[in-house]
Amino acid sequence: MSTLTRLATAAMMAAGLSLGAGATGALASSGDGPHLKQPNWSFNGLFGGYDEAQLRRGWEVYSGVCKSCHPLDYMHYRNLEQIGYTADEVKEIAASFDVPDGPDEWGEMYTRPATPMDPIAHPYENDAIAKLANGGVVPPNLSVMARARDGGADYIYSLLLGYADEVPEYVLEADPNFSLPPGKSFNHYFPGHAISMPQQLFEGILEYSDGSTPSAEQMALDVTSFLQWAAEPELEDRKALGRYTLLFLIVLTGLLYAYKREIWKDAH
Ligand code: HEC
Questions:
Q1: In the list 40, 59, 88, 157, which could disulfide-bond 224, CB 3.0-4.6 Å?
Q2: Residue 141 beta carbon below 6 angstroms from any ligand 1 atom
Q3: Residue 135 CA: which ligand 1 atom is closest?
Q4: 66 lines ligand 1 (CB under 6 A)
Q5: What is the pLDDT of residues 115-149, one digit of tens each?
Q6: Which residues of 12-48 are buried (b: 16+ CB within 10 A; e: fewer)?
Q7: Is the pLDDT confidence value at 43 over 70?
Q8: Does the Cβ of 130 fall within 6 Å of ligand 1?
Q9: By the 8 A CB rule, do 254 and 4 touch?
Q10: Using 50, 70 and 90 to split pLDDT, how confident is the model at 5?
C-alpha cells in the first residue's frame, strides 16, 4: 500500500467513524433473541438523508396509531413544516388536537383546539392515568427514542414487527419457567420479551393519503424514519459537514504527499 492510499484510508476511517456515531448502530441483537432487522434506511451512509414523503407518512402513522398512548415531547406542530407540510396544513393538523388551557376569567381550566405554536398534545392527563390504562407502565416519550435505545432505528423497527402469538422454543430452552404475565405480549426484541405494548401494526389499519399500501412493514419503516427525524432533525447537516471534512482531508493528504515527495526527491 502506498503512503498516499494509507493516509487516505486513515482519513476516511476517521471521518467515517465520526459520522457513524449517533446514527443507527448495527447492534446485533437484544439478549437471546433473533438479530435485529436492518432495513435499508434512507438516512444511512455518507450521502443518506430523509425522504420527506416518508416522514409525512410516518407522521400519519404516529398520529393515527401511536398518539393515543405515546407523547412526543419537545416537538411542536409547527415543526411539521420541516417535513413538507404547508403552514395551512399544519394549522389544520394542530386544530384537530385538543389541548388544555386556562384558567379563564371564571378561574376554570378548559380545552381548546391546538395551534401550530403548541407542543404536540399529550395523550394522557398525567402519568397515573397513563399507567392505569397500560397495565402499570407509562408509555415512554417517543421523540428521542431513536437515540435512547441501543440499535436505534433498527431496534424500533424490529420491535414494532417483533411480536409472536406463542412463546418460541428458543426462549423456553433458555428458561423453561418462562411464562408471559397476564396483559403482556411476547416480543422477540424487547429486553425480557414481555412487553406492555400490544402489537400495533396490522396491514390496513390506516389509509395513507399518498396512496401507499399500508403493510405492517411499510408503516414500521415510515413511523421509525419519522421518529429518527424527530430525534435527530439535524442529521443531514451533520452528514454534509462530514462530506466536506472528508473532501478536505483527502485534498490535504494529496498536498502533504506531493510536498513530501518534493522535499525528499534529491535524497533518493
Ligand atoms: C395502547 C397504547 C400504545 C400504543 C397505541 C402504542 N404503544 Fe408503544 N408502548 C406502550 C407501552 C405501555 C410501552 C411500554 C412497554 C413496556 O415497558 O413494557 C410502549 C413502549 C414503546 C417503545 C419502547 C420500547 C422499549 O424499549 O422500552 C417504543 C419504541 C414504542 N412503544 C413505539 C410505539 C410506536 C412507534 C407506536 C405506534 C405505531 C406505539 N408504540 C403505539 C403503549 C402503546
A1: 157
A2: no
A3: 12
A4: yes
A5: 999 999 999 999 999 999 999 999 999 999 999 99
A6: eeebeeebeeebbbeeeebeebeebbbbebebbeeeb
A7: yes
A8: no
A9: yes
A10: low
